[in-house]
Amino acid sequence: MKMNSLKTDVLVIGAGPAGSVAAAMLHKKGLKVKVVEKQQFPRFVIGESLLPRCMDAFEEADLLDAIKACGFQEKFGAKFMKDDAICDFNFSQGFTPGYSWTWQVTRADFDKALTDSLQQRGIEIDFQTGVEKIEFAEDGYSKTTVVDKGGNSSVITARYIIDASGYGRVIPRMFDLDKPSGLDPRKAVFVHIQDNRRLHFEEPSRILIIVYAPGTWVWVIPFSNGTTSLGFVGSMDYFEKLDGDINQQFKTLVEGNKYLRERFQDQELVFEPRKLEAWSIKTKKFHGNGFVLAGNATEFLDPVFSSGVMFAAVSGHLAANLVVKKLQGAEVDWETEYTDVMQQGVDTFRSYVNGWYDGTLEKIFFHSQPNEEIKKKICSVLAGYVWDMNNPFVQNHSISLRNVSKFIDFQIKMAELSR
Length: 419
Ligand code: FAD
Hints:
Layout: E1 4-13, H1 17-28, E2 33-36, H2 54-60, H3 64-68, E3 73-75, E4 77-82, E5 85-90, E6 102-104, H4 107-120, E7 124-126, E8 130-136, E9 142-147, E10 153-163, H5 170-174, E11 178-179, E12 186-194, H6 198-201, E13 206-213, E14 216-222, E15 227-235, H7 236-240, H8 246-255, H9 258-264, E16 274-277, E17 282-283, E18 287-288, E19 291-293, H10 308-327, H11 334-357, H12 360-365, H13 372-382, H14 392-395, H15 397-418
Helix pairs in contact: 1-4, 1-10, 2-10, 10-11
The structure holds flavin-adenine dinucleotide.
């Protein structure tokens, strides 16, 4: 049987935010780009609360207008709640200059808007087409065999590949690049749900994170269509101890918290509860001869600070710019110009994720007398500004959090002694 074959400058695998931003940047800089996407869009994917730091990447990729036209819920901050204690971050009160707002999006519509915009500018996307095999030649040129929904195979010859296949992790899996993350495996059970009582509780323009039980938390992400994404995250053990099937477990979880009960009990579900588990993963290297990874295909930590789409957009943007530079004949030091940059951002968030699960951040967030200067700096990290080396809570992320935590312990001790 004769196989179809075609040539392109860059093959992008996956049309999520990482792939879309990368493809838009490559096209803008005059390269020929081909996108292959395994699924038909619109398709559901989790990752609905964005961070302001991703706005620059979408803007440079000329994707902001397409997103704006969808009328998504604007997001101005993040609110954390533990019983009656509240810690409210307003992104406009951050330390680092830049966008101070973003959106909360239904990803099916969001990702479709991005790919529609790519297609309108003439970028070819083959949906329902998955990658089967990749062979790299010594000069970095690759031959990728893809198969469409009808079972037809084609070979795509490319000068470079950007693997933005998200949880699909095409190149990491094919070339044995997966590495354990070091974070404990966790599980999420989530729904989209009617949120008719929302205005009684909250303005919808922020994500709400509720501390539910030690190590277990809840996301509440309102959308502009009156529904809300509601998800519970905890250890695998936590969910195993709950009785019944996933529907029963979800009901029990909603009933187990006063706030959730009053806001969501008996509200209609848009879809039945779904689950995801053990998502944290690292990768041995982010690049190789003829390829670079972007988005979740590099590393994914944890959903708690909504950093996934931001990393996808920023890495897709940077990867594309470096591929352009390389294909124009300039030298690229992929370790310093790409891996170190992305790793610096991921490592900053890793300290915050660890701090969330070991109780350090709870101590800081719910302290009765918050230090406004510290809050401002942490606010910028939570907005995604994890490359601002002027911010000590980025520059020395782990030590800064530990020091604040120790200082709070000291204050508590002194207060006890003076009683
Ligand atoms: P994706 O969006 O996953 O896109 C990758 C695309 O590649 C997919 O469309 C897929 O079909 C395609 N693909 C896969 N395999 C192949 C193949 N073989 N051939 C061709 N195409 C292929 N992030 C946030 O920013 N905010 C949140 O609130 C948030 N909540 C989360 C909650 C949970 C429980 C989890 C687990 C994650 C959450 N995330 C969140 C993370 C977010 O889901 C991801 O970080 C984000 O979607 C990554 O974007 P991407 O473009 O890298 O990959």
